[in-house]
Amino acid sequence: MKRDKYVGMDVHQSMTVVAVSNAEGKIVLETMVPTAARPIRELMESLSGPLHVTLEEGTQAQWLHEVIRDLVKEVVVCDPKRNKLLTAGSKGDKLDARKLADLLRAGMLRSVWHGHEQTRGLKQMVRAYETFTIDTKRTMLRIKAIYRSRGIATRGSGVYQATQREQWLGQIPEAGMRQRAVWLYEQLDQVRKLRKQAKAGMLAESRHHGAIALLGTIPQLGPIRSAQIVATADTPHRFRTKRQFWSYSGLAVVTHTSAEYELQEGRIRRRSKPVATRGLNRNCNRRLKSVFVSAATGGGSSNPWREYLESLKQKGMRPEMARLTLARKIATVALTIWKKGETFDPRKLSSTP
To answer: Three-state DSSP class for 196?
Structure first.
């Protein structure tokens, strides 16, 4: 009977270092192969026994996952932020590959979700739209920074309007700085055009996903936020409960306690009020957190979310906790609708998050 082997891959742009260990943790093979599909596949095919492979999440992780997943028993694309063992002691490519194999054999790695092929196109469209959105904001900030550096007030959005640019440029005395502003205006026009095209492409791709139409019926989500949810979460069945979805979306409250116990009359007792700090979990998906927090912020001014938010405040909940609870509620409704394939019905809203 062939025994399992554990393969750690330290991936770099040109070469990949591979360490293979057996079930006892003994290294049976160390090698380097070019970071290309054919040599990596040939290496996997040359190894006997059920193979468990791990590599860290990075630029090439999705591609490598697709290259080798049909040749091995298991592929674990792990989160590098959680691999504390890699930072202990000496560091090197071979050592990293060995440590990855050891962590995989011990079951100490947490995998990063790599979605289905059906959502791959949507993911790329959403990333393109977000990239051009960020580039647009950065360019706008750079334009305003030029005027602020010369003591010129630029309140509002008039400084970006094409009909007012000559007037604004005339206030810049230095020729070099004025030319720089002209180029930034040209960059802004191009990025805005690309952003518009990316948005249209994203919405066109969204029509192929019925879940986006369902999520779009939820107030404050709309087509763009719904597309971001589907592109990020991929499938609602990843999350068994709403609390798992809250944690993934950065809406879970975590508590850190210290000095929980004390000695009283010779006996160890737990303090009634141990020292504790609370906050939202940081190991989350930033995109989903932004989606639900912004939806809750906008939803507080219109029904049905305004009524829900006001009911929480009337119960004595602090405003910031009420907004967090509303964000959780929107996330819960989105997960439920996505799983059940139903449209949003405000009559089904309950007072619980």
So the answer is: helix
Whether 304 is in a domain gets the answer: yes
The residues, ordered by sequence, that sit 6+ positions from 142 with a Cβ below 8 Å of its Cβ are 184
CATH classification of the domain holding 11: 3.30.420.40
Confidence tier at 225 by pLDDT (50, 70, 90): very high
Tokens of 145: 């920074």
Query: Tell me: the pLDDT tens digits for 235-288?
Result: 999 999 999 999 999 998 887 766 677 777 778 887 777 656 677 888 889 999
> 């990316």: which residue's tokens?
198
Q: How far apart are CA 72 and CA 283, in angstroms?
A: 29
Q: Given the DSSP bridges, would you call strands 51-56 and 74-78 parallel, antiparallel or unpaired? A: parallel
* Region class of 169: left (phi > 0), else alpha (psi between -120 and 50), else beta: alpha
Does 172 fall in a domain?
Answer: yes
What total of structural domains would you count in the chain?
3
pTM over 0.85: no
Structural contact between residues 128 and 198, judged by C-beta atoms closer than 8 angstroms: yes
User: pLDDT digit string (tens) for 107-151?
Assistant: 888 888 777 788 889 999 999 999 999 999 999 999 999 999 999
Domain assignment present for residue 260? The answer is no
Among 82, 106, 130, identify where a domain stops: 106
Q: Are residues 222 and 238 in the same domain?
A: yes
* Residue type, position 338, single letter: W
| Cβ(239)–Cβ(335) below 8 Å | yes
pLDDT per residue as tens digits for the range 177-214: 999 999 999 999 999 999 999 999 999 999 999 999 99
The secondary structure of residue 201, as a DSSP letter, is H
